Amino acid sequence: MKANPAGVLTGAHFLDGDQACCEGALAAGADFAAGYPITPSTEVVERFAARVPTVGGLFIQLEDELASSIAILGAAWAGKKVFTVTSGPGFSLMMEHIGLAAMTETPCVFVDVQRGGPSTGLPTLPGQADMMQARWGSHGDYAIIALCPNSPQECFDLMIDAFNLAEQYRVPVLFMMDECVGHMTEKVVIPSADAIEIYPRRFTSLPPAEYKPFKPSPDGVPEMVKAGDGYRFHITGLTHDEQGYPAMTWRAQEKLVRRLVEKVRKNADKIVRAEECDLEDAEVVVLAYGITSRVALRALQMARAEDIRAGLLRPIVVWPFPEKRLRELAERVKAFVVVEMNYGQMVYEVERCAGGKTKTVLVEHGGGTVHDPEQVLTVIREAAR
Amino acid sequence: MSTAPAVQAAINPVEPFLRSDRMPHIWCPGCGIGTTVNCFSRALVDSKLDLDKVAIVSGIGCTGRVAGYLRLDSFHTTHGRAIPFATGLKLANPELTVVVYSGDGDLIAIGGNHFIHAARRNIDLKIICVNNFIYGMTGGQVAPTTPVGATATTTPYGCFERPFNLPFLAESSGAVYVARWTAFHVRHIARSMVEAFNKKGFSFIEIISPCPTLYQRRNKLGDGLDTMKLYKQKSVIKNGANTRDVDIAFGGEIIVGKFVDIERPTLHQTMDQQFRQVLKDRYAGLGGRG
Ligand SMILES: Cc1ncc(C[n+]2csc(CCOP(=O)(O)OP(=O)(O)O)c2C)c(N)n1
Ligand code: SF4
Ligand SMILES: [Mg+2]
Description:
The complex is a heterodimer.
Chain A: E1 11-16, H1 17-28, E2 32-35, H2 42-55, E3 58-61, H3 65-76, E4 82-86, H4 88-93, H5 95-104, E5 108-116, E6 122-126, H6 131-136, E7 145-147, H7 152-169, E8 172-178, H8 179-183, E9 185-190, E10 234-236, H9 250-265, H10 268-271, E11 274-277, E12 284-288, H11 291-305, E13 310-315, E14 317-319, H12 323-330, E15 335-339, H13 346-354, E16 359-363, H14 373-384
Parallel strand pairs in A: 2-3, 2-4, 4-5, 5-8, 7-8, 12-13, 12-15, 15-16
Antiparallel strand pairs in A: 1-9, 5-6, 7-14, 11-13
Helix pairs in contact in A: 1-2, 1-7, 3-5, 11-14, 12-13
Chain B: H1 5-11, H2 33-47, E1 54-58, H3 66-69, E2 73-76, H4 82-92, E3 97-103, H5 104-110, H6 112-121, E4 125-131, H7 166-173, E5 177-182, H8 186-198, E6 203-208, H9 212-218, H10 224-234, E7 235-237, E8 254-261, H11 267-279
Parallel strand pairs in B: 1-2, 1-3, 3-4, 4-6, 5-6, 7-8
Antiparallel strand pairs in B: 5-8
């Protein structure tokens, strides 16, 4: 399906990442958002609040992040394409409803413009320390998909992918920006609507008597309905059977939760996406994402100038993680150098994929500003030795 | 269902509204929640609403299980968040009659902030609060409705905090319809529910209801039947009473009735009107693009 031209601001623009993220949501067809103000993410919903009444749909500022993160789920079950936007403390408050979205297989996008933490931390300055929270933050077992843009252009492009993935797999998709990407202004080219591919909601064509809300299609994803169409369906956060009714047994748990996890796990090859740079002959593979990947790229150029054979692997989809590719590389490279704005998060994934076959070095940073490329270069030099 | 609906209706008029494939329900003998569900089913019949356009949202608790037993589009959400879920549902499809059916702890303790803000906005939701003065589902802990002096598992020496007066809270937050009944007043409850269905705006019905297993027993108030007798004896109908004056003291009288029934523009109306006025022909409507 092609995008509805109503929301698509075709042309070349100068936008910051937050604004581009909003335009991506509109182009994807988002027609409902709820939010609660928090730096450095508020600009996304401010723009949405201004734009959406002119293209069709609505935004509402609610009393807190608990409310906004569940109001979008209510709207999704009335047929809307929905998202919410937050940072830091607000992201923590939304965790329970990421779990509810996963459990009820509600398509939705959660944007987190990461800032320095923990707690109130550095409200106006960048961080990348919510990466594990994005994956594991809600209680219990579930799977999500997370994307990580490194430019305003990608904030636009990947937001469309985020909505498409949410619809295709019926999972919450987490859009992991950072303050730098959110607040940097660059050229953003928005294509025409007919060049934007939209994954439509997987509405059932079965009549109510034959429809079971949680009976999976062959790819593990059930078909959806919306309130008001006569299906009289039930949705619960309790463990449930295919009818959607509570089922308090280990068997029901095994059947449901395994499927929730495997929807993403078994389709990981189709979902993972990474950008590669100079990996053909690389001895040292630098892994970085979001704004940090741009610093890492600079360090890479400096390393190449010194004839160090370094390359870059940038996960664009961070969850699921590009495991297979890392395992392949682990067979032949001297080291993985992980650059991230935290004291070690995605590095654990890299280390796991390295499986002891190659060494893994972390270039850590507490956030508040980006790494110094020199610092990264020093580690690359060391690793190449 | 193997029996024809018409035959079942002859046996029990609420049967068609229940998910009979989910029976038996989890509620204890003598619990008041089931009584309120009967009233609700009666109100659905009397209101002649198109049931395909009625959605019910519950939070978590014994009362929170109501959504799961009704043959409607039904949502069992998270503890305290039924109102914001319903807010999203209603804003996204204003054609739906959206009912929130939950407990006192769910709506007023953990969900209290959403309650007052939804009332302030006057979003068109029908809130049914089963107030058993206790957290039933988790085993009888103190609630923000527990009267001073009543005991609960976490106030074993008696509750020492002033409880909320729910009708007053609802009215002062902006509700356009406020009523309170006890589980004894089945006809009144059903009638109030019909009125709330027909009302545009934030409507609130409090139903004082027994939790014999936890509240009544611990407080030596007898069983479900004794409680019904007590409700009959202690309740005083005062329609139009000032909500300031309807506090409930332990062992005291229970003032019931319809307290508030006023008109005020709903959230949808004020939102739509504002955009219409300011954006004029640039306004594309709230309907979305799906
Ligand atoms: C976030 C969260 N905290 C606590 C609980 C545990 N819990 C479940 S129901 C409940 C209280 C229910 O009380 P009430 O809303 O009055 O419903 P009742 O069971 O009395 O009908 C609590 C505290 C929960 N499910 N979620
Ligand atoms: S514990 Fe109390 S509120 Fe819960 S079902 Fe039993 S009697 Fe009803
Ligand atoms: Mg209660």
